[in-house]
Amino acid sequence: TAWGTIIQQNPFFNGNPMLDDVAQALGVHSAEVSEYVQAQNTNFVAWVSEQRLHHCADELTNTNRKIIEIAISCGYNDLPTFTRAFKRQFGVAPSEYRKQGQEASNEKDQK
Length: 111
Fold this sequence. Notes:
This protein is an all-alpha fold and about 110 residues long. It is built from seven helices and no strands. It has helices at about 1-10, 20-25, 30-40, 45-60, 65-75, 80-90, 95-110. Helix 1 (about 1-10) packs across helix 4. The longest helix has 19 residues, at about 45-60. The relative contact order is 0.11.
């Protein structure tokens, strides 16, 4: 989402942002963020986690950064915790996700 993109660009993305912090960064009232998150059928903590994981997925696909570097830059303290969360979200481990992304990119290049 557009809001997810904005959150990734804010310094509090790596911490545990509060609803008011996110609303302020987005330039909206906290009630709007709360309503948006509820409309996504999730809660605030899960929504922030999902935004982080989507950012990590983009990093895996579009950079050569080490997986642990990506994990730490997105607020995960260790690789096993990140890998569990990532696999829960995307169904594959980060290394496999990266491999699939590289294979898809190579297929595009060959066409």
